[in-house]
Specification:
Number of helices: 22
Radius of gyration: 24 Å
CATH topology of the largest domain: Rossmann fold
Strand content: 15-25%
Shape: globular
Number of strands: 20
Helix content: 25-40%
CATH architecture of the largest domain: 3-Layer(aba) Sandwich
Largest sheet: 6 strands, parallel
CATH class of the largest domain: Alpha Beta
Strand order of the largest sheet: 3-2-4-5-7-6
Structural class: alpha/beta
Length: 561
């Protein structure tokens, strides 16, 4: 045993776990950040606000497919992290959030910045724990990381009272957490799954975030190679390269025409690692008539939570697929979908030609679909797309308007907290420094988190933010239009000069209104990134040019025009 305090023990544990970054803001300077001073293995990213630190840690974790770590001081520093923890829980991102708590001798008086932080954290985490003695730090950190990574991953929260944390004690050694051993599907369930696939002539695969976290990239690609069309949820995007001839984009609200046609023609839907959330299922109404449903998830409580499957298989998506592929190949069943697969390939080729013509629109104000299309062309395949979620940046969800590469997308979870992508893109870039990182955002979300532009410049994270600026809160105003144009509190009549703000923060900044400048501006932003400088492009767009899938969703479910 060695003499140390709790913060020194936490830093040592994180170092032993291979943690490379901690995101957040210091509070009491004697606590975690002082212990980090002499640690050269962990980089400290100074966010401008604590929720940004959580979003950056989320982006880092999702891009690295590993644990993210963030810190907030006690009281408001901790409560500022709550929205990020809620988002991490929704997106099933393994995250360790750390905070201090007021000293035990001052609790209840009340002490400065005192709050019942564990009670606040518990509803938005997998586990929230107050470390009762400094000697318990090694156990608590290991336990937290085990929980964050195991089963369906998610956020965890640890805190320790200030007075206890600064006591020097004989600290037990840290034993790093074991990577969880993922479960295979039960033999009987696998036999039934094989039989159901063999009995299907028009199966469709839908991949959620669980497929990505399991690392099932090669297995899903093999299904597509055999002729099965693959669609994804928002968080499942990236499980397959969207240039694949049978990658047909996203589901539900995010359907494009071809994906929707093929999906609703299915006689079996194989859902891999998805909770079947509201937007991705059309409020649980988008299901092919008469089709069978097979659902695979590592979390048994996710099976039948909304749609009740004909067969539920508990297991890690990658291992379940490996066994399924082996069985189908051994029996020669994998050849049965080849002809259908070739037909889908031809359909997609024609569809891409159709969209290429559609996206040449040179109207003013600019059309977001054209910007998104040109973004993919200019930045190329070595690019990670980071999503926000608004009426205009929603165009970036609609593949193939933008086509992502394998593991080339980071999306928010079902909470879609505004700013998740704007701040999170910095963490993505730090996790994947050799790839281009672009965040497509609306002006509303960007205004909430543009405070992190200097963070990107300071920490050498050359991200490009594409602002699709309609000068109002588009999704809300869309509903207001359908409510007899009862517009209130949605228009930005006073708005910052985003390009000037970017330049003031050490970034490249440009406002774009001319369609002839779209490609040139994108090229200038990419050049700035390649020189190590973050970039902001403020595109002034037509706020009423809404994606067909968006319109169809609300027309079908709510009777909108």
């Amino acid at each position: 045993m060695s003499k140390m305090n709790a913060w020194q023990a936490i830093v040592g544990a994180l170092r032993d776990e291979g943690v490379k970054y901690i995101f957040g803001m210091p509070g009491n300077p004697r606590l975690l950040y002082d212990a980090l001073y002499d640690c050269r293995d962990i980089n400290v990213v100074h966010a401008r606000e604590q929720s940004s630190g959580v979003f950056m840690a989320m982006g880092y974790a999702r891009a690295a497919l590993d644990l993210g770590v963030c810190f907030g001081s006690n009281g408001p520093g901790m409560t500022n992290m709550v929205s990020g923890l809620l988002e991490a829980q929704a997106a099933s991102v393994p995250l360790l959030a750390i905070s201090a708590a007021v000293g035990t001798k001052m609790e209840g008086f009340p002490a400065f910045q005192e709050a019942d932080q564990v009670a606040i954290a518990r509803p938005v985490t997998k586990w929230a724990f107050r470390i009762p003695a400094p000697e318990r730090v090694p156990w608590a950190v290991k336990r937290a990381i085990d929980i964050a990574r195991s089963g369906c991953p998610g956020p965890v929260y640890l805190e320790i009272p200030v007075d206890l944390s600064l006591q020097e004690v004989d600290m037990p050694p840290y034993v790093p957490s074991l990577r969880p051993l993922p479960p295979r599907g039960a033999a009987a369930a696998m036999e039934q799954m094989v039989a159901m696939l063999e009995g299907a002539s028009r199966p469709v695969v839908v991949c959620g975030g669980g497929a990505v976290w399991s690392g099932a990239f090669a297995e899903v690609e093999k299904l597509a190679d055999w002729g099965l069309p693959v669609l994804t949820t928002a968080t499942g995007r990236g499980i397959i390269d969207e240039d694949h001839p049978r990658a047909l984009g996203l589901t539900g609200l995010y359907f494009t025409r071809l994906g929707k046609e093929v999906y609703f023609d299915a006689d079996l839907v194989l859902i891999l690692g998805s909770r079947n959330d509201q937007f991705e299922t059309g409020e649980w109404q988008y299901f092919p008539e008469g089709a069978k449903l097979v659902q695979v998830d590592i979390d048994s409580t996710a099976l039948g939570r909304n749609w009740v499957p004909d067969l539920g298989v508990v297991g890690d998506v990658r291992l379940v697929l490996k066994d399924l592929l082996a069985a189908l190949e051994e029996r020669g069943s994998h050849k049965r979908w080849k002809e259908r697969g070739e037909a889908i390939k031809e359909q997609k080729t024609c569809y891409l030609e159709e969209l290429a013509a559609e996206c040449q629109d040179d109207g003013v104000p600019l059309k977001s679909k054209r910007i998104v299309w040109e973004l993919g062309r200019v930045f190329g395949r070595n690019t990670i797309l980071v999503n926000e979620n608004g009426s205009q940046d929603l165009w970036s969800y609609y593949s193939p308007y933008f086509r992502t590469a394998k593991n080339g997308c980071v999306a928010p979870g079902a909470q879609t907290c505004m700013g998740t992508g704007v701040a999170g893109a910095i963490g993505v870039k730090l996790a994947r420094p050799d790839q281009n990182v672009v965040c497509v955002t609306g002006d509303g979300a960007f205004q909430m988190y543009m405070r992190e532009l200097p963070t990107a410049a300071q920490h050498n994270a050359p991200v490009t933010w594409i602002i699709l600026n309609n000068k109002f809160l588009g999704w809300i105003k869309f509903h207001q239009r359908e409510m007899n144009e009862r517009y209130i509190a949605t228009d930005f009549r006073v708005q910052p000069d985003f390009a000037a703000v970017a330049r003031a923060c050490g970034c490249y900044g440009e406002k774009v209104e001319d369609p002839d400048e779209i490609t040139l501006a994108l090229e200038r932003a990419l050049k700035a990134n390649q020189a190590g400088q973050p970039a902001v492009l403020d595109f002034i767009v037509d706020g009423w040019d809404l994606a067909p899938g968006f319109r169809d969703y609300y027309r079908t479910l709510f009777g909108y025009k």
